[in-house]
């Protein structure tokens, strides 16, 4: 059975030689252990209170050793952690050792939707919540690799060409006077003029909508 990649059977609680110290509050212990296991499975050496601060050890000293001697600190950030006095002491010590982030000594992994308190808000974080376990594992290992290597996050393949928005339809031309159709003749009073019908007896019948008028042609007219 895999032991998560951890070949160190001792639990001295010291941070010497450790790649990462996992800073968390007890409410987030499951997340901290998952992070530690995933990193050690990938070959990283991790210091985490749940496994390394064993009975009889001084956990305050272990915490100080972790922040002081581990190469980097990973904060398991949640609302509970943001309220933790000891959590604040740990991330602030890591931040003070690398305030401009040049060596990427402080990594922030959010495990729920929460604000980043104080100066922690200036550190670029990554999220492990709201995604699949496979995606979370990939995000964690990528963050660790970028921190250790100091490389950029440039993808291995070219990004797709960003197609622009669909072209807007051409504006219809302004209808000037020359392009307008001739106006229909005005309707006479009483309705809309339809036409004139000649009857066989010489009568002319003018038909209006709603009105029928009879006009007899008189001789000489």
TrEMBL record:
SUPFAM superfamilies: Toll/Interleukin receptor TIR domain. GO terms for biological process: signal transduction. Residues 152-199 are annotated as: Disordered. It comes from the Bacteria. PROSITE patterns: TIR. Residues 16-148 form the TIR domain. This is TIR domain-containing protein. It comes from Frankia canadensis.
